[in-house]
Amino acid sequence: MRAQRMRAAVAATVAIAVAGSAVGCGSSEDGGSTAGSATTAERPRVAFVNASMANAVLQAAYQEMQRVAEAEGVELTAFDAGFDPAKQFAQLQDVVASGQYDGVIVAPLDGNGLVPGVEAAIDAGLKVGSLNQAIGSRLDTTEPQVDGMSFAVIHPPVTSGRDMGRLTVEACRDVDPCEVGFLYGSKALPLGQALRQGWDGAVEDSPNIEVVAEGDGNFDAQGGLKVVQDFLQAHPGIDVIVGPDPSVVGAQPALSDAGRLGKVKLVGGGGSAAAIRQIAAGENGWVGTAVVLPRSEGRAAMEAMIAAVRDGKASGGIDPSGEIPGGAMLTRENAARFRGEFPS
């Protein structure tokens, strides 16, 4: 039976807060960073098993989780998988085996591979929710996919990929052939494959679009810079770069050095403050970006976990980006209404 859906409120003006300062944290005995102090019956303990603390999107989500946990008297302990799926699975097992937690929020790397660990956590009596990516095999839905999960907070990556594809079609309008360089965060991860699936579906009726180069930008600026330097060396006439906002923003110095900044069209994914600012100003070839709302997602995840632990409530699928009036595809026409929820 489908759990009751909890929607995160989004203002009609779509004013999205820029990342703020994190709540102070210390060291927990089990190696994570923890916000709060000793647990009581009124002070639930929640573990956050994070894909990577170095990722700008997940940093923003965690900061908002900390803020809500502090305000609501929840002890929140974070574990950093460092983009290692095997390490993340082991961390989830450790959380369950410790017997110290009332609930666990997982930002998964390999959502399908984590299903046995999530089932074990539920069987052990923990409330379980996901953040940012799906736990299960489907990457085109917001709904929880494991029986007994309390919630899933996600903007489906297939949807984001489709929006990035639609923006690419616009960038390639009247350009034939249109040479595209595709930046994955990580092609090996289900997220990268889902984004590409959505992108491929959106451009399949545009025969002028040709992907001439691919590479992993590792979701960060340095990765994007290196990969796009390679793109330009092999394909100096490339027309469009597509990828996660931090990698595309990071690649701009390479384009500048090659005399191509502003001539190559840029399409992003994420909705970073740096990308939105340039899109709104019509600068440096930016066409648009597919928006996600990490702070809103972090807030929704912690609120849903508190409801699960304290009241036994299952909140179901939650997609703050899906509540944006007019959709989550940002262009120059609507960019002035937005402020990014993560900086880079």
TrEMBL record:
The keyword Signal applies. One of its GO terms (cellular component) is cell envelope. Keywords: Signal, Sugar transport, Transport. One of its GO terms (molecular function) is carbohydrate binding. Its main location: other. Residues 1-24 form the signal peptide. PROSITE patterns: PROKAR_LIPOPROTEIN. It is found in: Cell envelope. Residues 46-313 form the Periplasmic binding protein domain. The keyword Signal applies. Belongs to the bacterial solute-binding protein 2 family. This is ABC-type sugar transport system periplasmic component-like protein.
